[in-house]
Amino acid sequence: MALRGFIDVGCGEIEDAVILPRVGESRFFEAPMTYQVHEKIVIEGKMTSMAFCPPLPNNDSRILEVPPKFISSACWRGYQGTWEIKNRRLFLIGIDGRYQFRENTPIFAEWFSGTLIVPEGSILEYVHGGFSTVYEHELHITIKDGKAIAFSKIDNRSKFEDTECLTVKDSSKWLSFSMQRFLASRGVEHVVHFTRAENLPSILQHGLYGRNSLKTAGIQTAVNDYYRFDYLPDAICCSISFPNYKMFYRLRQENPGTDWVVLRVKPQVLWEKNCVFCVENAATRAVAQTPLQQRIGLDALQRLFSDIDTAPPRSELRIPDFYPTHPQAEVLIMDKIEPDMILDVLVDQKERIRDHKRLSKIVHDCVGGKEFCYDKSYFDARMDYVYWRGTQIG
Fold first, then answer.
1. Where is the DarT domain (predicted)?
2. What is the pLDDT of residues 114-128, one digit of tens each?
3. pLDDT (tens digit per residue) in 177-201
């Protein structure tokens, strides 16, 4: 139940307040929200702000939670952190509101990996919600384990040349841009699709097709799911960042004589193709009976990264920002995925691939010369498997 009051939580004097979320929760809050107060950040000695809120460390004795347990509608997280990049390392150097430092000592943010977004210049499009307001430029700072490994500058001005189109929030241009920005802020770098190795020559030549389109094109392939209880037989089943390991494991156990590969695909498919976003396995009754209109667009994409009511918060499970919350969350891609959209081909171990030499040559000789990589992690479970295995999910 929301409470109303007139309080100050370090994010400015406010009029409306609600019960706080937990510390460390995702920076994308699921309740309806207004424009959010930016975090502060010091870069090269200059104080600025970022349209992003890295999580705080979990159960850190150096950070003290203090009352009152209320927040402004302009600061749902209940605090405002001050960060600094010094010698290419990210530090939390101050915090006001719901949390405070026990001692005035900077904390190296070794727990955080993701992309910081620092807005620059004038506002091109004000969005009364979250950190979605668009500025002329953005500085993207890629952080891995607390270390700044890359800096890039984004110029948004060209995207707003057709201002009449982009002021309409449900326009295709605005939707594409918003989805791209959301995925970049979470550090999503690829989509994955697992398949039998025998399908690889056809895929690298023709691309990925849905089952009905394969029949129409006269392309012969081995399929994994004959029944398609998602009721979208022409969809290509993919996952964001990491495979649906439960399904992948079951298929490998049921087909011990079959070689498998994981394809990493460019993230552009998520905003350039028609996609259906499913918060869990698309064949479950709950998902399959959800109207299709509720499973497309930016809101549907963001729900993949929301906390689940019946599970601990993402922060407690230590789910990386670029992973969906549910390990069986799926993206059903309704369009063909062209060969040049495929980044590389992953295999478990060389000795497990019976026709390794031929497949390796096919991969290297295909259009674009894909990489043929060994990465056992994509054939294993996620790091939060310990929790999910005790549920019907895992």
1. 189-380
2. 999 999 987 677 665
3. 888 888 887 888 889 999 988 888 8
Please give the helix or strand (H or E) that residue 216 lies within, else none.
Answer: helix 211-217
Q: Binding-site residues for NAD(+), please?
A: 193-195, 228
Residue 281 near residue 348, CB atoms below 8 Å: no
**Cis peptide leading into 320, omega within 30 of 0?**
no
pLDDT at position 240 over 80 = yes
The answer to whether residues 35 and 133 touch, using CB atoms and an 8 Å cutoff, is yes
* Cα–Cα distances in angstroms (integers) from residue 60 to residues 23, 56, 160, in the given order: 11, 9, 43
Which of these, 216, 259, 232, lies nearest to 353 by C-alpha position?
259
Predicted TM-score of the model (pTM): 0.58
H/E stretch holding 84: strand 79-86
- Write out the two tokens for 156: 């948004």
| Span 352-357, average pLDDT | 61
Catalytic residues: 228, 330
Element (H or E) spanning 386, and its range?
Answer: helix 385-388
* Full 3-state SS string of 142-199: EEECCEEEEEEEEECHHHHCCHHHHCCCCCHHHHHHHHHHHHHHHCCCCEEEEEEHHH
Going by C-alpha positions, the residue among 151, 140, 84 that lies closest to residue 117 is: 140
Structure token pair of residue 382: 């996620």
Burial of 258 (0-12, 13-18, 19+ CB in 10 A): middle
Averaged over 226-234, what is the pLDDT? 61
